[in-house]
Amino acid sequence: MTSCLISSMIRGSSIVLKKKRSFDKKLAFIPKQKYILEDINNDNVYTDGSLRLSEKYMGIGLWYGENDDRNNSYRVFGKLDSNRAELGAIYTALTQTHIDKQLMIYTDSSASMHLLGNHYYNDKTNLKFDKLLYHTSYLIDIRKEKTFIIKVKGHSKIHGNVMADTLAKNAQQNKYIILPDNNLCDVLSLMKRKEKVFFPVCYL
User: How confident is the model at residue 10 (pLDDT cuts 50, 70, 90)?
Assistant: First the structure.
């Protein structure tokens, strides 16, 4: 299995994204989950972000299923913003699933779906999250199968969402995840302090 590091902190990204995308080929949004769409033939992952401003803490959680080795949580390094955490969780899910399998991402963040949809289909820039959105779109583009992003209602006792939320809230002692919008100098400073860091890797 070949892996490539998806990060462009060192220099400006040279990734070229398609300007005209098919609305039904690579990415689909399901704004309201009426039925459980999980399928054993797909990769299914619930994602969530957690922000605690008083503690200056932000985490993300990814839950794939009971006893799945990929279930994990990370402390998010950099700017504290709840939408950044939610987008970071979606980005991380895309790096941790094989591009040959159809991917179902479940999120309770309407804002993340709106931001990603505007960027992916309409090429609308968002100065706050542009780099993170850019790389998330790239990961969707290189997948051989379709990506579905499905809205679930938060705090409604949907098991997968509850588990992702719990993971995100309990990531304080875990590794810092490095996202594409992190500043390289800040990351090097973090590593000099001997903090544990994780660079997401995309499996091709």
Answer: very low
